[in-house]
Every structure is written in structure tokens, then in C-alpha cells.
Amino acid sequence: MSPRAGNAGPHTLAFVESPVQLLNVLEWAHAHAPGVGLTLVVLSPVDPMTRGQLRRMSDLAREEGHEVRWEEARGGPLAPFQTVGGLAGPLRRAGRVVLGDPFSRYVQLLLTITRARDLVVVDDGTATMEFVGQLARGERLVRWHRKGGRPGPRDLLFAPVSAAARRRLTPGDSRRVEIFSSMPMDETPAGVTVRANTFAWTRARFGPPRLTRGADMVGTSLVETGVVDDGRYLEAVRALATAHGATRYFAHRRESTDKLHRLAVETGLEIVRPELPLELIARRGPIGRTILSFPSTVVHTLPLALSGTEVRVAVCDIDPAWLTEHASPRAQGFLSGVTGTAREAHGLTTAAPTHTPDPAPATDPTAPPHTATFATLPGPTGRTGPAGTTGAVAAG
Length: 396
What we know:
Strands 5-4-2-6-7-8-9 form a 7-stranded parallel beta sheet, sandwiched between helices. It has a 7-stranded parallel beta sheet with strand order 15-14-13-10-11-12-16, sandwiched between helices. It contains 12 helices and 16 strands. It has helices spanning 19-32, 48-63, 79-93, 105-111, 127-137, 153-168, 200-205, 230-244, 257-267, 278-284, 298-305, 331-346; strands spanning 5-6, 12-16, 35-36, 38-43, 67-71, 96-99, 118-122, 176-181, 193-196, 211-218, 246-250, 270-273, 287-293, 312-315, 349-350, 374-376. Residues 1-9, 362-374 and 381-396 have low confidence and may be disordered.
């Protein structure tokens, strides 16, 4: 155990499934549990990009003095049973449980086992806004981009576990619930303590960054989740890059390789696969003086992480015409709420394409080749991932 952490207070067990969740657990520990040694359980996904970022975030957690337990939670048909069985003992002994995704079926199942008196929910991006509202209204827990759809067989089978998890996340005489978030809260569930995440650990640990003259763009997985049409999205990116002089595109970890290759070919942007959450990448620099983003978690988190610098964050609204026919009826209102509250809270400016994008044609495989540049930024110890190559993303 590092001198940075100790064993004061109740034993704390934290469950994370994404790099951003792990970052926010470190922020919570820095702000509200100094001297407490966490056991961080990484429920590892199968996606290589996410795994790479989680590995590097785990290195940072160990440097802060926390124990990291890596679980191959999705490593085969028996992995869930082995993972849950192996965690049952630590869960029953933990006095406090910190979790990053209350919508996760894995986490919901683990919540039915714990006897912890203190439960803390840290941000899992904009989904936290929806979780807080659903908890306040006593609704079943459903991710915002799936809300309005008909529950599938797996949803119905898992419904009792989900309902039990929601009850466990409701404060009672023997249970305290805290939400640690940088997101705006329109509704606060009765009895829940809400604490603000100001990214104090990130600012103390990294930066300030060196700024470049140009603009950078932040990618989104709205195409991958079926919310936004891919052709409309590509044309919007191209128009924004032209209007604002953007040269780099920071890919979301869930964006597909095919989409990113097409973006590089048709926009000329350098596609960057960061090895850490964008809040840390931006704070370390170099970063553009202007960061362009669609509705995303970063329109709330980057202004906090970059507080005191000259970086300007600009947000581009999602035109209703860009939505797919499969998008949830809730999608437009939710996305508008993300950008509207960010403008109100942080005074963000508006980025707009030079015209309303029309769907872009599919790339012609017989057309002359265009150099598509992909890069991977160094990890926390200065290591670099595989070198960028033409037509292939260098994943961490």
C-alpha cells in the first residue's frame, strides 16, 4: 500500500467497467475519502480500446495507493458465475460500495449481494442524469437511448434483479446513498446526498496543458448506439471541421474502425485513439484552443478539467433530421438537455456546421486512395501504443 492511501474508515469496494468510471472513482476518493485505501474491481469488457484505457487507468490507481483487482468478467460463458462467486465474500464484508454504472446488469446483480451501509454512484457520463431522474420518479432503470422501446426477453428475465437493485439504491434507515457527479441534476431523489465532482484530482495531477493554435474535435458513439445516421454524422463532422479549422478528431472508445477510417478518408482529419479518458488527455496536452463536441459527457467535464486555462469548449446540437428511425422518442429531448444545461452551467459557445448536412455517399472502394492517419497518444508512463497506420486504427 502506498503512503498516499491507508485503511481509515469502512472498507471500500469499487466496481468499474469503463475508464471514465475509474477516473471518477479516483476523483471521489481524492475529494471525499482521503487516506482510504480502495479495492478497485475492474469488470473488464472485451473491447480492446476500452481494455487498453482501463489498463492505463489501473496504473494510475495503483500509483495513488489503491489495490486493483482485474476480473475477466466476460471471458467466456462461465466467467460471470466465476466472477460473482469470487466477489461474494468481499461484497459481504465491504462497508462501502462505489459503482459507476447502475444500469449495468453485472453491477445490479452484485448489488443484490452486498450488505454495505454506504453506496456511492459516480458518473458514467450523461447516463447519470437519466439514472437520477428515474430513481427520483421510482421508475425501472433503463438507459436513455433504449427508453420507449419494448422490453426484450432478457429484460423481462432480469427484471426482478433490476428491481432489487433499484430498491438497494434507494436510501433507508440502514443505508445511505450518495451521488458524486459533474452532471446537472434536475431532480434529486429523496434522502440521496449529492456531491459535486470538480475534477480536483485531475487538475492537481496533470497540466496545465500546452495549447495549439488549431481546433480539436471530440467523437461520439451516437452512430454506434443507433441514435444518429452515419452519413449525416460524417457530413456534420466534415462541415464543422471546415468551419472551425479542426485538424484532429479524438475518437470515442466505442466508435467503429470502419467509421473512423471513412472519417479520415473523407474529412482529412487525423484520427486519434487516446489511451486515457479525454479529460486527462486534454489536461496533459497539447490540446487545441477550441474543442468542438456533439452532445456528450465532455461538454460538462472538460470545462471543469480545463478550468483556469484558455481552452474554449464549443458544442454542436444534433439536428432532429440526423436521427435514425430506430432512435428512442426520448433521444432528441435528452440530447438537447445535455447541451442546454452545459451552456447554462459553463457558458459554452455554439458550434454549427456551415450548412445542414445531407447524408454522405458511401466510400467508393475503387476511388484513388487517400492517406488516412491514425494515432495513439502516450499512456501515463510515456509509453506509446502501436504506430499509426494507413487504414487501421492503432488500439491501446
